[in-house]
Amino acid sequence: MSKMVHTVTGPCKPDELGWCQTHEHVVCDYRLAPRNLDRVHRGDTGYMYLGDLDKQVRELAKYHEKGGGTVVEVTSSGWGRDVKKLKEISVRSGVKIVAMSGFYMEPCIPLYVDETPTRKLADELVQELTVGVEGTGIRAGILKSAILRSRIEDIEEKALRAVCMAQRETGAAITTHTTGSRRYEIPSGSHGPQHLRIILEEGVRPDRLIVGHIDERPDIRVLCELAGKGCYVQFDVLGKLHYLKDETRASLIKTMIKEGHLKKILIGTDRCRETETYPELGGHGYTYVNDVFVPIMKADGISDSEIRTIMCENPGEALAF
Amino acid sequence: MRVIRTVLGDIKPEGLGFCHTHEHMTCDQRVAQIREMFDTTRKWNSSAMILDEPDRTLEEIKQFKARGGSAMVEVTTSAWGRNLDALAYFSRESGVHIVATGGFYTEPHMPREAETMPIPDLADWIVSEVFDGVGPRKIKVGLIKSGIYHGRIAGLELKGLRAVARAQLRTGVAITTHTSGARRHEVRGGNMGAQHLRTLFEEGVDPHRFIVGHTDERPDIEFLSWLCGLGCYVQFDVIGKLHWLLNGTRFELLKELVKRGFRGNVLLGTDRCHKPEFYRDLGGAGYTLILDEFVPMALENGLTQEDLDAFLVRNPANALAIEVPDRSMAGGPGSTTPAVGAGSITSPKVGDGNV
Amino acid sequence: MARRVPFTLATRSVPRIAIRAENTALLILDMQRYFADPEGGYNKIARDRGIEREYTEFYEHASLIVPNIQNLIALARQHSMPVFYTQFAYFDPSEVSLLQKSLGIVLACDDPEAEILPAIEPDEDDLVVARTGFSAFSNPVLEEELRARGIENLIITGVMTEFSVRATVFSALDLGFRPIIVSDGCAGITRETHGGVTSEMTFGMTKVRTTGELLRYAKELEFDDVVLI
């Protein structure tokens, strides 16, 4: 049986995704986090919440108009994943949505995870990927593991091992998160190498790992090494210029292409706040890549065909199982 | 149906008898594979663990039997001199039941492959040693081990522990452990029991299948009680090694454990692994230290025959028993392949066959 | 059989310590010709007295530790950790101690018998501390130099386990440093007492580690700024 990408509206062939951003949020609410280690995170940019269904449909419809085909929605069950709402938004906007199974960082890891053996956790994830989430019949299409601190440890490590077990049984990809505020405490800039070490130990192939948030504190040597081992490398905080200038992102992508890693590059914009997403609040919706980043890439000499590979071919190959 | 898996096949738990749950019969640190961490002057120090004279070992096993012993658990893991063919030979020649061990000893003694093999594959390998057996005679192990050398469970040893935990879930055999004596002062509680439990709980292993070893190197009665309360076995297995603890102190601790209701959690052994403590002409005690000295002294020091029967007969049988489907008992005693008929095998050299 | 020293059965377990390149130094004790070279002064006295067989195991042990000390020096250089050598010798004649006179080992720091073995000879930047007591800290300059560099952890190698090493470890503990005794980087006057001392010394903040283990920890320093041991 050939591999499919599992969206909230059903399976589709990898080449039917179209233009796909592989790290976005559509419905989320950080106030639901069960172990908030700090007060609810509020900065100038507000907290991570997207809940206005009509506005979400509006923004994704714009994305669709500009050529957007699919988004991978990486909100975990610990902070507001709602596959039924995602399905409704998908149908109304015309954009395919891939939902996730797995875990976000410690504050969002449900409390029952502490006492549940890893094997049982894995069984639940497998259920979500193969049958459906919470009896809805809506399947998740990707796994996730996130790390808050500078080292993978404790409950986050347990969660990662459950995700690895589920990966081996289903073939789904594992996408990851490194927390931005801790990126200075990590010599490589992201958890990619740490994640890789553990997934290999658990018998997962490197080409099933998508290393996320690498454009917060990148090191081209580490990126090329990860891609060289088969991992996907995801530039997913485009537009968040306090992390990195977009021009720098473009030159990193250019170098990776030169080094032969074109087929391992993925892109997303990690919209998760209203202030980032709604133009009336100063945000840019889901069309940042099309509107702003593509021209920057082209100015750097990255070709249309290369952009097509990154946005329309790589996602299908990474996600299908 | 409940059985105990010995090197000669499965036996009924009632057939086990007087049993030490932690001994060595063949071992050789010189073949350890990841030895970069060893003290490089150790060989010269001759504190290396080497038992490589099978005739003398068989003699001591026969002595054990003659004095009333019935069974021993041999806890040498592969990659540092386990020899399952030799154990089968010893068992056949002496009539002593021998349970062999899979899994891992401490990091320097782990097989090189453990560094690169993923955990699921390591678990498969351990499971196959329990279900399918090793070598042409398909000798099976009846227990699996996790040995920790450092002050914390981490790195390769943690990886090995996870593989062992997953194999435990699939086979039902108990997990026995080692804490390195050199590190016992860096370990709160005196042994790695609590740290092992953290990972075992995470992996879903039932504490009743867990034997905490070397608890009499640096014991703490409160800590031991806590382990027993969770259902674990605590094993006083360096009996006779008085530089760790006086036997008198052991009696006090055992009496207190019985008083607290934990008679059913205690196991005993003497962990003979160096020639000076093993060969009688070097001052050693063979395998008879418990029978000759410890039991009589225990009875004089306030422990009862009931206590000792629990520690040495009932508890080992409970700890080692596994559930197998009826009518799948692996080859009854003595019924291994024809090539190994009684009396036709010569004493094997350490290093022959196995692993 | 090993001797019983149950002191640490009832003391708190030794906590983890944090090793950083910036807070750790290598200490090489008394690896000078007089003690560490079988052709040196100490063994000559033994030969003159016809009793050199008493010391064959010591000299065997001393030669076995040299490659390990070399490896540790390379490790220290790689991570810019300071290396300190000691000599049992006086810097100035006015310093000659009662101990030196009573042992009959009165050496000036520039005496050939006080010279560090060529196999592990000091670099220009290394500090060589001449002192006249057992403990390396009997010359106050060592503590000064360590504090000035912010050193907290001491990797201790050299001879003899039962004397200078042991005394230095006790002083280090008294002064609040964290000693790491390299079990195969120190040589004892007998195998038995070397083993006894190294196994008895795990109290306070003391760690006993092999060269192989320290090299393993150092690999982690290449990935991260701190190693917890």
CATH class of chain A: Alpha Beta
**CATH class call of chain B:** Alpha Beta
Q: Compute the gyration radius of chain B: what is it?
A: 19 Å
Number of strands of chain B: 14
Keywords:
heterotrimer; B: about 350 residues; alpha/beta; TIM Barrel; six-stranded parallel sheet; three-stranded antiparallel sheet; 11 helices; about 35% helix; disordered C terminus; C: about 230 residues; Rossmann fold; two-stranded antiparallel sheet; 8 helices; globular
Report on this model:
The complex is a heterotrimer of chains A (321), B (355) and C (229). Chain A is an alpha/beta fold and 321 residues long. Helices cover 37% and strands 15% of the residues of chain A. Chain A has 10 helices and 13 strands. In chain A, the strands form 4 sheets. In chain A, strands 8-9-10-11-12-13 form a 6-stranded parallel beta sheet. In chain A, strand 8, helix 3 and strand 9 form a beta-alpha-beta unit. Chain A starts with a strand and ends with a helix. The mean pLDDT of chain A is 93. In chain B, helix 2 crosses helix 3. Chain C has 229 residues and is an alpha/beta fold. Chain C has one domain: Rossmann fold. Chain C contains 8 helices and 8 strands, in the order E-E-H-H-H-E-H-E-H-E-H-E-H-E-H-E. Classes of the chains: A alpha/beta (321), B alpha/beta (355), C alpha/beta (229). Chains in contact: A-B, B-C. The interface between B and C is medium-sized, with 27 and 35 residues.
List the helices and strands and how they pair.
The complex is a heterotrimer of chains A (321), B (355) and C (229).
Chain A: E1 5-7, E2 10-12, E3 19-24, E4 28-29, E5 49-50, H1 53-65, E6 68-73, H2 83-93, E7 96-98, E8 100-102, H3 118-130, E9 142-147, H4 154-170, E10 174-178, H5 192-201, E11 209-211, H6 220-228, E12 232-235, H7 246-258, E13 265-267, H8 274-277, H9 288-299, H10 304-319
Parallel strand pairs in A: 3-6, 6-7, 8-9, 9-10, 10-11, 11-12, 12-13
Antiparallel strand pairs in A: 1-2, 4-5
Helix pairs in contact in A: 1-2, 3-4
Chain B: E1 2-6, E2 9-11, E3 19-23, E4 27-28, H1 42-45, E5 50-51, H2 54-66, E6 71-74, H3 84-94, E7 97-99, E8 101-104, H4 119-131, E9 143-148, H5 155-171, E10 175-179, H6 193-203, E11 210-212, H7 221-230, E12 233-236, H8 247-259, E13 266-268, H9 275-278, H10 289-300, H11 305-320, E14 322-323
Parallel strand pairs in B: 3-6, 6-7, 8-9, 9-10, 10-11, 11-12, 12-13
Antiparallel strand pairs in B: 1-2, 1-14, 4-5
Helix pairs in contact in B: 2-3, 4-5, 5-6
Chain C: E1 18-20, E2 24-29, H1 33-36, H2 41-48, H3 56-78, E3 83-88, H4 98-103, E4 127-131, H5 140-148, E5 153-159, H6 161-175, E6 178-187, H7 191-200, E7 207-209, H8 211-223, E8 226-228
Parallel strand pairs in C: 2-3, 2-5, 3-4, 5-6, 6-7
Antiparallel strand pairs in C: 1-8
Helix pairs in contact in C: 3-8
